[in-house]
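Title: Prediction job returns without error message
Component: structure pipeline
Severity: low
Priority: P3
Assignee: unassigned

Description:
Job completed but the reporter wants confirmation the result is attached to the right record. Sequence as submitted:
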Amino acid sequence: MRKSADGKPSRGIPPAAAAGLGALALLLVWEFAARSIASEIVLPSPVQVARTAAELFPTARFLAALQATFLRGMASFGISMALGGAVGLACGLSPVFAAALAPALTVIRATPVLAVILLALIWFPSGTVPVFAAVLMAFPVVVADLRQGVLSVDSKLLDMAQLFRLRKRDRLRSVYIPAVAPHLASASHGALGLCWKVVVAGEVLSQPARALGTGMQGARVQLETAEVFAWTLAGILLCALTDAAFKLIQKKDPLALRAA
């Protein structure tokens, strides 16, 4: 029997079972809507989408597209974390630098993703467009979280570190990193999900030779709606699996992010 937060037995539905029931309800609603519309072009049934996905996923074309999208997503995530982390730390340590950068961050946040992608199409090759757009969109998120982490450092600990004349390296390891680590985890989680969404959207518009977004667009042009759903499902699974791997690493080794 499960236990609640206070240690007492809980008779509620387990979260995994609740999630399964929710997924089943969603599939039933989808199936009902598909039968009501009765048009495969408008809304294929879940069974038809599953059948199409089973035929598409083992193909060499799909595997090449999946690999290319995965590499773009990981590159976007890595670059946004590196740049955003460095700038976020600098903003937290220097109010002047944070004030000077604030207008640029505001402009980036206010700019629609579609506008960024269209401009990137003019500036970069098609394969680089999704990475550039994803980095630009995730960058402010990482900066804000890391800056907040630096600002959350206990002033008493800083005073103590100064009293004992700790070296900057020891002060960073003992005072700043423990305070910033939770914000780093939050920034990583937010940037990861955002990167996948923007990368796939950028691929739909930029049409690289190998990409999940290119597959979606090609299926849409041919009115293969079930295949559009299958390509979309692949993107969702890719995002969900990387997110689950991130949470697993964080759960098994909470200090891993601190060493990053």
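Comment from assignee: result matches the submitted record. The chain has two domains: 12-43, 44-259.
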